[in-house]
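Students often ask what a holo structure prediction actually looks like on paper. The answer is less mysterious than it sounds. You provide the chain, you provide the ligand, and the output is a string of discrete structure tokens encoding the 3D arrangement of the protein together with magnesium ion.
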Amino acid sequence: MNSRRDFLKTASLSTMGGMFFGASSFGSLSGLRSDETPLQTTKPGRMNLSWKPYDLALRHVFTLAGSSRTSTQGIQVEIELDGVVGYGEASMPPYLGESKASVIEFLSRVDLSTFKSPFELEDILNYVDGITENNTAAKASIDIALHDLVGKLIGQPWHKIWGLDKEKAPSTMFTIGIDTPEVVKTKTQEASHFNILKVKLGRNDKSDREMIESVRAVSNQPIAVDANQGWKDKFYALDMVEWLHEQGVVLVEQPMSKKQHDDIAWITERSSLPIMADESLQRLSDVPKLHGIFSGVNIKLMKCTGMREAWKILNLARALQMKVMVGCMTETSCAISAAAQLSPAVDWADLDGNLLIANDIYDGVKVVDGKLQLNDRPGLGIVPLNKN
Ligand code: MG
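The corresponding structure tokens follow.
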């Protein structure tokens, strides 16, 4: 309890006390209160939203086709109802245009007082989505916390609520960033317990081939390649795809810019490998536009506003006979465990964001023999570390 009070105090100080919002009377769930002593700051029957900034420290410098960084800005969120706490998170890699300041400003505008129950997910999340046009990570933090709360009130994990068999959770990819051949070899050897690697390409031809050859010098693991929009010419890109196929690569993500969909459609039509949309996919409404251009989509909670829309994207993509992958940003085990809830339904999972940080604050989904291992705890299946 002390830790939780500290959390709220921190949030209160950092946001000048403006984070609590009351809901109207909510008596029907009073029997579901936890045994915890109600907080001084909490009024019974009200959803209370609070947050605190929490930057994620990367274990290694992370290099993509366009940038390098050593930390990622983050905000941790709680929605509490009668002593039951749902945890959420916003992660803001710099290229997505959100920051701690923009997320805090967004959260300050969220007023849950008109909603009687967290079970009104559709109405609450439509309201949250309507507050601004963008701010997808901020919206995701609310969505994730609400899902955790609802799962805890029901007493079931989301994979079960969605009707998924946790034994079908796939292996997760482990990311090898762009680096020198020696570093790539070392990182690949350290990742020998993963069943599939994700290798970042898209800088230039020499670097790309060197990356793959360095991995192959020490490993036969299947590889997923992410070009992060780095290739500029469709003929070159198709040649690379075919060469990668020969190197044991199983898929290629975002070979060219999201502004070059005609070229990507041309590649997909001819490619031996599935071509997956990442930067080209943000929201549910993008999925029909990508049908016929890409083989499939890479869903990330921070792009699509959270678990509810992720589930809708997954089902729409399946209806269009597209492949589905679930990915992540640098995130704690909170958002990673949230995304992992739908992993039994996807073709590939790339959920290593929590493994790439040095300061995780939750115990949640695990990786055992390279495979995602979901637990039976309710909600997201997470427990805060150092909180009892
Ligand atoms: Mg990607």
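Confidence is low (pLDDT under 50) at residues 1-43.
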